[in-house]
Design brief:
316 residues, alpha/beta, FAD/NAD(P)-binding domain, 2 domains, 5-stranded parallel β-sheet, elongated, binds flavin-adenine dinucleotide
Amino acid sequence: MHDLIIVGGGAAGLAAAAYALDKQLDVMVVYENLGGKINQKFTMHADTDFLIGHILVHLDAPETAPEEVTRLGADTVQEFERQVTTQRGRALFDRVRRVAKEGDVFKVETERSGTLQSAAVIIASGAVPKQLDVPGREFINHGIGYTPVTYARALAGKTAVVIGCTQRALRGAAELARTVAQVYLVAPQFPHNDPILTVLQKRPNVEILEGCTVTEVTGTSSVDTVIVEQSGKVRRLPVDAVFADVGLTPNAAMVKGLVETDADGFIVVDKRNATSVTGLFAAGDVTTVYGEHTLIAIGEGARAALAAHDYLLTRG
Ligand SMILES: Cc1cc2nc3c(=O)[nH]c(=O)nc-3n(C[C@H](O)[C@H](O)[C@H](O)COP(=O)(O)OP(=O)(O)OC[C@H]3O[C@@H](n4cnc5c(N)ncnc54)[C@H](O)[C@@H]3O)c2cc1C
C-alpha cells in the first residue's frame, strides 16, 4: 500500500509529487498525459507572423530572432517531471476510473493496472475546455485557442475574436484589447453590470456582438474568418486568431458521488486543499480555487501535498 496516490501528472500533480518525494513518502503518480496542459501547443499563421507552440517568428523581419511566448512556471513543471520520472516506480501511465474509500484505505481503480491502495489521495486531474461545436473546429490549436491571455503579446496589432461570456472570456478580451488592433467579443448574452464588460464597452477597439452566434470558422492553414449570425443576418469577421472560452469541464468523474463538488462539478476544497472526505485532497484546475494558471496549480499542488503529509503524520 502506498502512502499517497496522486491522480494527474500536470502542474498540480507533479508539484505535489515533488513535495511528497522530498518528504520521502511512498508516492505514486497516475497520469494519462505527463506535463498536462503545459504540453498543449497553439499555432497561428497571420500575414506577417507565425506562432508555433510558444515560438513567435516575424516573417516580415527574418533577421529578428524568434520570440518565446512565456508560460510562467512551465520550466518548473518540467523540472518536477524530471525529478519524478528519474525515480523508479513513482509514475504510472494509466487512467484512473474510480476512487473509493473503504475504512481508512483508498482504493484507486485503474484501467490497466488493477486497483492500487493508499492512505491518502490527491486529485489533480485538471479540467478540459468546453469545445466550440461549429464547422471549422478542426482549427482548434491552429488559430483557435482557449486562452487569450497567453497570446495577447503575440497578437499585437492583429484582429482577434473572443467567443464566450465567462469571466475568463471577458478578462481575456480586456487583456487582448490592450495590444491587438481589433477585438470582437461574441456571445448570445453577456452578464449585465459586469465591471469588465463596462470597461470593454468603452474601448474603441472592441466590438461587442451580443445576441450573436458563431456559425462557422474558416481558413486554409490557419483561421482567417469567423462567420456570425444575428436574427438571420450573417456577418463575416476577418481575423488572425479566435479564442473560444465557453467554460471548463473538470476531470472529476473518478470521484463523482464521493466528494462535494460545486454545481459545475469542480471539487470543493478548503484552505488546506482538503476535500469533504478525510485523507482526500485536491489541487489545480479540477478544484473550485480561483485562477487556472500554471503557477497557481504548482502552489496548490505543493499545499495539497503538505496537507496530505500532515494527515499521514497524524495517522502515525
Ligand atoms: C491552451 C492553454 C494555454 C494555457 N496557457 C497558460 C499560460 O500561458 N500561463 C498559465 O499560467 N496557464 C496557462 N494555461 C493554464 C494551465 O495550463 C493550467 O492552469 C494548468 O496546467 C493546470 O494544471 P493541472 O495540473 O491542474 O491540470 P492539467 O495540466 O490539466 O493536468 C491534468 C493531469 O491529470 C491527468 N488526468 C486527467 N484525468 C485523469 C484520469 N482519469 N486518470 C489519470 N490521469 C488523469 C492528465 O493526463 C494530466 O496529467 C493554459 C491552458 C491551456 C489549455
